[in-house]
Amino acid sequence: MKGKKIVLGITGGIAAYKSAEIASRLKKSGADVRVVMTRHATEFISPRTFQEITKNPVAVEMFADVVNFDESHISLANFADVILIAPATANFLAKMAHGIADDLLTTTILATPAQVIVSPAMNTVMLENPATQDNLKILKSRGIKIIEPATGKLACGTVGKGRLPEPAEICAYIEKFFDDDKNLNLRGKKILVTAGGTVEPIDPVRYIGNRSSGKMGFELAAASRRHGADVILISAKDLPVIDGVQFVKVESAEEMRVAVLSEYDTADAVIMSAAVSDYRVKNFSAQKIKKDADTLTLELVKNPDILKELGRLKKSQVLIGFAAETENLLEYARKKLDEKNLDMIVANDVTAEGAGFSVDTNIASLIYRGGTVENFPKMSKRDLAEKIVERLAKIFQSGE
Ligand code: CTP
Prior knowledge:
With 400 residues, this protein is of the alpha/beta class. Helices cover 36% and strands 24% of the residues. Strands 13-12-9-14-17-18-20-21 form an eight-stranded mixed sheet, sandwiched between helices. Strands 3-2-1-4-5-6 form a six-stranded parallel sheet, with helices on both faces. Strands 7-8 form a two-stranded antiparallel ribbon.
């Protein structure tokens, strides 16, 4: 962990004494460790101990020290590669879950772009309380990593779940996090993601559309962002914005094509999850079409195949396509992979239960250039997005 910058946050639980060994192990493994203690933590162990171990000043939230409050939380928040809270009390988890920032440590956490990892420690009843369980769920859903508390004898004399794991285990967890992060890191990569079904206007009121919900694309943009990429989401659907993702709203296939091409030269990867309309209406009517005639014929012309064009223009970009099929899934998907010069294609049978447009789950197979196929069981679109982005990170790695 040489050179890794770790902010170790210590909150006020009896297990705080074990944090000295955590700090010591992290320091010995080469990390630059800065300790921030809550006021309650100092009731259990002295800041001095950590100062000696880490050879760095310890930030303690005393009212007298609040002079440089703003500077400290911003500098610590930006300094950290990881913020580890060990032990994290029930009270502290509740504050984190609700965005309360009333001391240096909570404020630092709110202000940091770094991964936050918490190691909860408390008695079993507090841990199992629905309030604590809900708070842990909230934190997890926001990407905070949680080290499972251990089971054993607790400070209050009972035996159960809630112990702080041994310092060696906590440090092993952090080490593994850095290892995985190195492999899956997309920092510095520019990734374009397309989402939603394009809309092809017939007249100012009507359009031709499709059943794509845009969910898969939004999850892919969010997953790419979580892995540190610079993400541009070019979407024909409006869904809630994703923090840190640049959003470009388009309607038609042609608008999507222009938006994608304008960023393509400098992109490292494109994930085309949009359901692009294959045809558009040849003659757009500037006025609303009246229902005078008994039948109405619309002449459709073919839209450009955006992904195929990207495949032709490809330099070093990684291209990922989707194949939504209703039959001959792998055969058709393979054909698209070849014809569009892709590195990977996500094939799914949209007629299968639990897959397709309106549901939150998907059943997909990933086919790679070279022919390897990876089949996934039914999973949430969020989990599938995570898998796809992890595979993308591996493709980058193998090309470096
Ligand atoms: N795609 C595209 N431009 C189009 C049509 C599709 O960029 N005009 C992309 C999609 O975003 C997807 C992949 O190509 O990543 C395959 O899309 P799909 O609709 O499954 O296949 P098509 O190539 O349109 O072929 P078909 O409709 O005949 O199955």
